């Protein structure tokens, strides 16, 4: 009996000592973690980048948009959850809508159906960012004049797309795309080391051109969707009604 008593007491004492030792180890490990974290320089600590949630306009309505038509009537409406915009023939109509809010750095995208536009028509489908006439970044799609079409060797089923910064600095790049297709047009605005905008134009995630601008986030942009009859986009005043469909617009800030 005495032997069993000592055996039981020894076992209990051992468990008590093990428990104390374990608590001591846990406490030391916790303290060590705290000391280790605080010793890491702030610039090297992990952090989660702050990203603005994706803003999407599906064009089930025109909430958060306003008319920006310059010439003619506001020729647009919602059609099967698309924004349909058009201009009439033999006019210089410039039909536009713009976002109510203005934005800065981030990624701007437009999902656009590009139809067969009138041959030689001076008409443009626009997806662009605008602050004023010298702070404007554009996609402009149209038939193009015959001289430029020959320079680019454009096929009969191809249209011309311009990617443009209107000033600060001026930049323009022209390329081709097939008509009667849906495209995602994107302008990415980031900042360089000097806090100036770097603009990148993409179609279906393929880069067309990039340009560093002379200004930064003090200049914010409203988002535009448009169809305009513009003299530089073809060879004659439009003979046909030209249109575009906008399925959605998105903005992802950063």
UniProtKB/TrEMBL annotation:
<keyword id="KW-0732">Signal</keyword>
<protein>
    <recommendedName>
        <fullName>GH16 domain-containing protein</fullName>
    </recommendedName>
</protein>
<comment type="similarity">
    <text>Belongs to the glycosyl hydrolase 16 family.</text>
</comment>
<dbReference type="InterPro" id="IPR013320">
    <property type="entry name" value="ConA-like_dom_sf"/>
</dbReference>
<feature type="signal peptide">
    <location>
        <begin position="1"/>
        <end position="23"/>
    </location>
</feature>
<feature type="domain" description="GH16">
    <location>
        <begin position="33"/>
        <end position="254"/>
    </location>
</feature>
<dbReference type="InterPro" id="IPR000757">
    <property type="entry name" value="Beta-glucanase-like"/>
</dbReference>
């Amino acid at each position: 009996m005495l032997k069993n008593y000592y055996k039981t007491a020894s076992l209990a004492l051992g468990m008590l000592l093990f428990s104390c030792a374990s608590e001591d180890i846990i406490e030391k490990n916790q303290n060590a973690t705290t000391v280790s974290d605080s010793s890491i320089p702030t610039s090297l600590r992990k952090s989660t980048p702050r990203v603005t949630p994706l803003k999407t306009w599906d064009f089930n309505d025109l909430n958060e948009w306003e008319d920006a038509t310059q010439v003619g009537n506001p020729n647009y409406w919602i059609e099967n959850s698309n924004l349909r915009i058009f201009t009439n023939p033999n006019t210089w109509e410039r039909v536009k809508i713009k976002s109510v809010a203005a934005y800065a750095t981030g990624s701007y995208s437009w999902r656009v159906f590009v139809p067969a536009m009138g041959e030689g028509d001076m008409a443009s489908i626009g997806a662009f960012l605008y602050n004023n006439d010298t702070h404007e970044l554009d996609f402009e799609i149209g038939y193009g004049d015959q001289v430029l079409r020959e320079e680019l060797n454009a096929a009969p089923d191809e249209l011309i797309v311009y990617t443009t910064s209107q000033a600060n600095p001026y930049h323009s790049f022209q390329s081709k795309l097939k008509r009667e297709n849906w495209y995602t047009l994107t302008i990415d605005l980031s900042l360089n080391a000097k806090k100036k905008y770097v603009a990148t134009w993409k179609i279906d995630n393929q880069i067309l051109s990039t340009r560093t601008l002379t200004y930064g986030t003090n200049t914010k942009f409203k988002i535009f969707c448009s169809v305009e009859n513009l003299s530089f986009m073809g060879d004659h005043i439009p003979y046909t009604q030209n249109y575009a469909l906008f399925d959605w617009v998105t903005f992802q800030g950063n």
